[in-house]
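Hi everyone, sorry if this is the wrong subforum. Our group has a chain we'd like a structural model of before ordering constructs, and none of us has done structure prediction before. Sequence below.
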Amino acid sequence: PLRAVRWYARAWDLYPEDAALAIDLANAYKRADNYTKAEYTLVSAITDLPDELSLYLELSRTYVEQDKLLDADQMLSRTANQSIQQQLAVLRPAAPVIQPEGGAYTEYIDVSLSYGDGTAYLSIDGDFPALSRDVYTGPLSLEAGESTVMAIVVSDDGLVSPVVTAGYTIGGIVEEITLTDPAGE
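Answer:
Right subforum, don't worry. Here is the predicted structure as tokens:
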């Protein structure tokens, strides 16, 4: 992998306008387990070649491979280039829908997702969803109190949907209790 890094780096120095070489160099860095350099290479290439859609797609994949879903979402959502932003909007998975809608509830509820293609991730603890712990497999029950639910979908090609968030307050629940008197037994 290090030899490949060296050769791709030289080639990219000679042809800095070649987005494919930047992607090849980033992939060589990933094979050498140097994701920091892979990210740096792609960000630098995007700075120099802001109209190259392939660079944004590869950077998103690189973030997803590292479980950096927040970084992928922010990069895809905040791209300054309007043409690229429009192309990404078409390619990204649709945002999931959290059900029921956020709000105040006087009973325990289960939250669920509806979404299209890809794999959904749902967090009910207010943290950004993570590949390693938040795969959505079905409805999740919320506890009494306040909860922030966040969801995102990751496509098979490494793009992420916009993140969706919903806030819930569950309170005022009347629960049945049973009292026993040891002296009465």
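For your construct planning: Residues 35-48 form the longest helix (14 residues). The chain has a mean pLDDT of 95.
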